[in-house]
């Protein structure tokens, strides 16, 4: 098992990619602290994980709420142990053309997708620095590379995630803390069904080199690699997992 005895904090763990990460990490031996504002679904996911014999603590947290993140991390440290891994996955992706976008819509996007990483990372980093060990994986998006239209506040937020990843990896590399990023392509999740049509799916597959829809497990596996010793030589990088759509 690649994460035996590790403690991982995962945001946005109730559904989709975050749920897939929590499940895979617990299968690989980690105890998981699951933070999500969707309390009921998060609890259901944690119960499934515990039923398989792993340790999982689900807490209702809005990642914009700095104080409740700090309380949650303290609780994780007391009940599960020091945090080895942080996965910043929680995110929103409403489409909104630029000219009709309100300042409130802009701010909400940056608060959930970027400022939350400031809060969570500040909550876990001091003890990672003290222990000279840590892995942080931030979930960005291939839309930053593609410059996808109709959601400029989202694309800007995901670019900021890459910038923050690079800057923090320079500052904390000397403490043996690895900070990397995953840029998922089009991943088939429950929430995707609300805005992805059959035509969209055909278009995704036309762009991808691999001709199947990607699933949360595909992203969870990349996060696993970046959270275990297999990636010990990497920091500040963005791993693109999109079935061979954008290449760089
Ligand atoms: P999802 O909607 O299935 O899951 C997101 C989770 O985050 C949900 O459980 C939601 O409750 C939680 N969340 C949202 N806002 C929150 C808040 N303020 N506080 C606490 N929890 C909050 O979405 P997903 O597709 O699994 O996306 C996960 C991440 O992957 C996001 O950062 C998203 O931008 C990124 N991503 C997804 C895709 C895709 O195709 N699905 C592609 C690229 C990037």
Strand coverage percent: 15-25%
Bound ligands, named by name, code or SMILES = nicotinamide-adenine-dinucleotide
Q: How far apart are the first and last residues' alpha carbons, in Å?
A: 31 Å
- As for the number of domains, it is 1
Which fold name fills CATH's third level, the topology? Rossmann fold
Adjacency order of strands in the biggest sheet: 3-2-1-4-5-6-7
- How many β-strand runs? 7
Helix fraction, binned, reads 40-55%
Report the top-level CATH class: Alpha Beta
Overall mean pLDDT score?
Answer: 97
CATH architecture classification name: 3-Layer(aba) Sandwich
Going by CATH, the homologous superfamily would be NAD(P)-binding Rossmann-like Domain
Low-confidence stretches: none
Could you describe the largest sheet, including whether it forms a barrel? 7 strands, parallel
**Rg to the nearest angstrom?**
17 Å
What would a concise description of this structure say?
By secondary structure, this protein is an alpha/beta fold. It has 8 helices and 7 strands. The chain has a 7-stranded parallel beta sheet, sandwiched between helices.
Explain the layout of strands and helices.
Layout: E1 7-11, H1 16-27, E2 31-36, H2 39-51, E3 56-60, H3 66-79, E4 85-88, H4 103-131, E5 134-139, H5 142-146, H6 152-172, E6 177-184, H7 198-207, H8 216-227, E7 238-241
Parallel strand pairs: 1-2, 1-4, 2-3, 4-5, 5-6, 6-7
Helix pairs in contact: 1-2, 1-8, 3-4, 4-6
Bound molecules: nicotinamide-adenine-dinucleotide.
């Amino acid at each position: 098992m690649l994460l035996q005895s590790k403690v991982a904090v995962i945001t946005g763990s109730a559904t989709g990619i975050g749920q897939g990460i929590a499940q895979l990490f617990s299968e690989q031996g980690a105890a998981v602290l699951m933070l999500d504002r969707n309390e009921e679904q998060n609890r259901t996911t944690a119960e499934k994980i515990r039923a398989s014999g792993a340790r999982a603590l689900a807490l209702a947290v809005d990642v914009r709420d700095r104080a409740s993140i700090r309380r949650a991390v303290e609780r994780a440290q007391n009940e599960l142990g020091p945090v080895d891994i942080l996965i910043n996955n929680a995110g929103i992706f409403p489409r909104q053309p630029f000219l009709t976008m309100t300042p409130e819509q802009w701010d909400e996007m940056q608060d959930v997708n970027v400022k939350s990483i400031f809060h969570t990372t500040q909550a876990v980093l001091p003890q990672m620095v003290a222990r000279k060990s840590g892995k942080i994986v931030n979930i960005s998006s291939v839309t930053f590379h593609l410059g996808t239209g109709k959601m400029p506040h989202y694309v800007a937020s995901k670019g900021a995630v890459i910038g923050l990843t690079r800057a923090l990896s320079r500052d904390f590399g000397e403490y043996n803390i690895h900070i990397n990023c995953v840029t998922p392509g089009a991943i088939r999740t429950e929430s995707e069904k609300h805005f992805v049509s059959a035509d969209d799916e055909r278009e995704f597959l036309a762009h991808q080199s691999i001709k199947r829809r990607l699933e949360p497990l595909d992203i969870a596996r990349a996060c696993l690699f970046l959270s275990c010793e297999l990636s010990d030589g990497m920091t500040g990088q963005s791993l693109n997992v999109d079935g061979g759509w954008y290449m760089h």
